[in-house]
Structures are given as structure tokens and as C-alpha cells.
Amino acid sequence: MLETPSLFRYDSLAIPDVNELVFGKAPRPVKCGFGLEIGAGMVFPEVNFTLPPIGISEETWPEILHEYEEMATNIVRRAVAMKVPGVVLEFELLPAMTEKPEWGAEVTTLLRRHLAAAYDQHKMLSALRVTPTDIRDQGKPPLLREGEPCDRLLRSFELTIAAGADIISVESIGGKEVHDRALMMGDMDAIVFALGVLCPADMRWLWKRIVRMCAQSGHAVPGGDSACGFANTAMQLAHQKMLPEVLAAVVRAMSAVRSLAAFEEGAVGPSKDCAYEGPVIKAITGTPISMEGKSAACAHFSPIGNIAEAMCDLWSNESVQNVRLLSGSAPEAFTEMLAYDCRLMNVASERGQALALRDCLTASDEWLSPQAAVLSPAATIAISRAIVAEKDDYRRTVAAGHTAVAIIRDGVAGNGLALSKKELQWLNRIEAALDALPATGDELEAALGEEYHGLFRPASYGR
Amino acid sequence: MTELKKLYDAIVAGDAKTSLAITKEALAENVTPGELVANYMIPAMDEVGKRFECEDYFVPELLLSGRAMKAALGILRPLLAASGAQPAGRVIIGTVKGDLHDIGKNLVAAMLEGAGFEVTDLGTDVSPEKFVEAVSERKANIVCLSALLTVTMPAMRTTLDALRSAGVRSDVKVMIGGAPVTEQYAREIGADSYSENASAAVATARRLVGEAAHA
Prior knowledge:
Chain A is an alpha/beta fold. Chain A has helices spanning 61-81, 95-99, 101-122, 148-162, 176-185, 188-217, 228-239, 245-264, 278-285, 330-350, 354-363, 370-373, 377-388, 393-414, 421-435, 441-447, 450-453; strands spanning 25-32, 36-40, 44-48, 87-92, 126-131, 167-170, 221-225, 290-292, 314-316. In chain A, strand 3 (44-48), helix 1 and strand 4 form a beta-alpha-beta unit.
């Protein structure tokens, strides 16, 4: 079924002043869960946790529920002991729990029960974010708008919302079937096609539905998406020296356009923790964001551990397995670490020193990596302005790419950003490819290498 | 007379068009397929692997070289098969049941192919039964299992169990890899080897095939 395209497009910034772009404060705070207001002046921990190695089946299900009971008990106990002013728990469903949506709903109910008890007993403010796994990438090419995996994903949203999810998110995968290949080949044309044409089309289709389901529930808020499968894949491949860092940095900036599409369809935040493109979303939409950095080293390494904190409203550990450490369980330990990080930010805000702390967090990373350089408050404003100045997703994506290249060049020229000869060659190559792109996404699709056309179904993108 | 060193150079540079053209010229001049593969193409991919390891090449350069190698192999393979030449080994590769991640697995497959292995890629979310079936059908020497999630790692053990139950475990060497996978885990589940990255996987595959040949 063809749908009416959305009419709403951001054309200006909710936060045009770089000195207003700071942690804990968003022009459009979000109220959700048990009395929590996110983005209204304080930063709260967002604790994310997962199972240790264990198969998920009917036989192991009781053991899995026991793991979640234990994790929830330990996290809440630590949060209460740390006197956190509020906390968000994030439950990221594992693929099997979206395949069988009832399982995801059962864990949602369990976690919600713990937060309700903590509110009743300790008046602890909290919210539960639930993130079903986007399992639509099973076919080759994937079928995104119909079929069993799509039905199960949508059912998973419905059931977890009904089970008490306060915030709904997803790391959607539309466009990834092209982007993965393009990234590995360093093919900028196909990368831009995926990020600027395919991804936003799928995002708009999917988020229209999520927003509707949340609205019907009367309690759940549509949080936001993450370009995890795109920009974080690039970041991790760059970390392993498989891809140039400059490519990962440019992909990060361009990926903000696809994530913004969720907000143009009605998402209100807080955006997803692994969406490092979050600051751009915050600057444009004014909605609060979740971020992760140094305290997510349990899940993955990154060159942006401090700078990622500079503009966050929730501060997350990304994911930690329920394993035993010397202090206690890992989720419990990371609850404490996040609580301390947040305390520091909140005290800085109370004393009117938030900008000073933000700038220290920024300066400590900014010119050590091109990936950090595109995440500073100033870079965020520049990329955001470039995006809203354009009218369609494709041109926005190209504009974000150009801006990222310019930021990196400025860093090299005047701020001591050191790039290897090989990285500089890639920066030139990326810039030349962006310069040579045609005026429209349709023209780019027509010019795309034959190897990409068989990877996606045009109908999955309404094309 | 074609300067065969240009075939080596074209593959190192990732120039598929030139590698194909030189291969055609060489065949027309009666250079044997075996000589092209052994003396120019595999050494070229070895050089590419070295450049990747010392961070002079990123994955895109490596894959372009693999593509240049594949272009030449496309016309050499039937000739090699007709002459009875064997690949470096026969590999079955896939991401285990329940796991949809494939970037790392694809990279290993491309590098093994570049190193002269015949690779059958079963894709993602591959059931143990499919691995067993492919091992028998393709007469594989090596099975490579990939997983990115801690919760799908147990499917590696299940796959090994299935290979044992089907009576084909002793016919193949099993290599495992993926972000949460460790050497210790490989030992625990009875895999033959763990590889940390794609180039290590090629070296391991060569070693395992060599060991099997001398066993």
C-alpha cells in the first residue's frame, strides 16, 4: 500500500546556540514511567544488561527468567543504595525473544514489576525502555514491510507496550543489506544510497507504526532509533583497523539523517544509547538523548568515551553480561559506575559549571580521532545546520558528509588532528566521491553498480 | 610475450580488468593455469594479506584484490578442474543458528577464497543440519563457524555435536570465530581452532590442511 509521505521536516534547530547544547537539558523533556522526567536538568543512568552465554529455548526459559530476576534485583538494589535521582532500565530483546514476542513481553512484565516495587518502597523514579530486535533481515534480499519476521517485530512492539514498556526503541536495519556491502568495499556512492535513500524510507514506514502503537497505549513513548547497524559497525571495523577512521566519522555524520526520520514521524526521545548521532538529533529536535561512552567499555571499545557524555540526558553502559565480578554482579557494578558519572554531571549543573565540564569532556577526546572530531558540540551544530538546510533525505545525507569532511580537514589544518597518510588518502577519496554524486537519489540509484541492485527489494522501500 | 608480473601487480592493486586481460593473454600463450595461480596469484594475495596485517591496506583494498583474483580464477577454474588440480582446501563457512551477523564471516570467506580455498558460504542463521549436509555434499576439509552474540555461541557446540552424531566430525577441521568467541571456548566445545581475525583464519586454515595431509 502506498502511503502519503510525511509533510513534516525540520528546517531549523531547536538548539541553535552551542552553549545551550549541554548534558541534562533539552528543550523538549520527556515524562515517562514512574515519575521520571528526562532532559529537564538532570542526567540519569540508563542501565542495559544481557544474558551470559546460554541457549534460548523452552527448556532454558525458566533459567533465563531467573537471570533477569537476578539482574533486576541487583540493579535496583544498587540504584537505591546509590540514591540515584532516577534510573532507566533498558531491555534489549535477543532475536529469539522477538521471534517469539510472548517471551519479550514476559521479561518486560518482570522488569516492570521490579521498577514498580522500587517506586512503592523507595519512591525511586524510573522508566523501562524496551528495544525489540529488528529481525526483518532474514531473507536475501530482506522483506521489510510484510512477511513473518515483520509481523513478529510489530507484534513484539505491541506486546511489550502492553506489558508495560515505558519507552520504545529499535535499531532498525532497513538499508543495511546494501550498506554492509558498500562499507566493506569503501563504496561511497552505495553508502550514500543506503543511508540517504533506503534507510530513511524504511525508518519513516516503521516509525509511523511505532508512534501509532505508542499513542494508542496511552503510556509508552516512542523513544527513537539508532544507526547502530551502520555507523557503529563502521566504528567497530575502524577500531579493528579494517576501515579508515575517517570513513567511520563521515558515516556517523551522514547516519544522523536516517535517525532523524523517526522524529519527523513522531518519536519524542529519549533516543537510543548507541545512537552516537544523538547530539545532532538533540540539536535539531530539542528532544533528550541517551548516550554511551567510556562506561560502555564492557560492551565495546571506542575513541569517543568522554565526548559522548558531553550532551547526554541519559548515560548508558550499552550492554553488560550477567557475570560475577569481585564486587558483585557486572550489571550491579555498572549501575554504580553510571551513577557516579551522573552525580558528577548533576553537581556540575547545580553549581552552574555544566558548560565547563562539557568542554573538558569534549576537549579530552576531540582532536585525538576524526570520529571524536565530528561529535563535539560545535561540530554537532555545524552538521545539524547542514542537514536542516536541505529539503530531502538524500541531499541532507550528502550535506552531512561534506560537513564532516570539512570538520576533519579543519582539525588536521588547525587543531592538531593527526591522520596517517593512508587516512588522508581516504579522506580525499571520500570527498571526491561526495563531490561527484548526482543531484538526486533516483539518479544515484540508476548509476549504482549492478552488484547492489540484487541486494534489496525496491518494494520494501515503497519504490 | 605477456609480462606475468603484471598479473601479480594487478591483483595487489585490486585491478580486476587488468588481471582478467593478462590471464587471457597468458593462456593464449600456453602458460599453464597452475603456473599462474601458484607463481603469481597466490603470492599476490599473500602480499595483500601482509599489507592488511601491517595496516597498509584496509578491508576495501583487500576485497578489491580478492575481486581481481576471482576475475582471473573465473576463467582458470574450469581449466584447473580439467587438469585434476585441487584447491588449497574445501571450506564450508556460515554464521550459526540464531545469529544474523555476517560481516566478519564474509571477510573470512573472501580471504580464504583469495588464498586458493574453495569456499561454500552457507550464509547466516545456519542450522547444524545444514552444516552437516554441506560437509558431506562438498567433501569439505574445513568448517568455519561464526557468531557475534554470546547467546548464539552455544549453537557452535550444537553444530559440533551434530557433526559428531552424523559421523563426519573426523573428516573435517572446525574453526570458530566472532567477537565473543575465545580460544578457551574453542577448547571447551572441542573445535580445532579459534581465529581472532580474517588473516589469522587463512594462516590457520593452511596449517590445519597441512596437518591433515601429514596425519
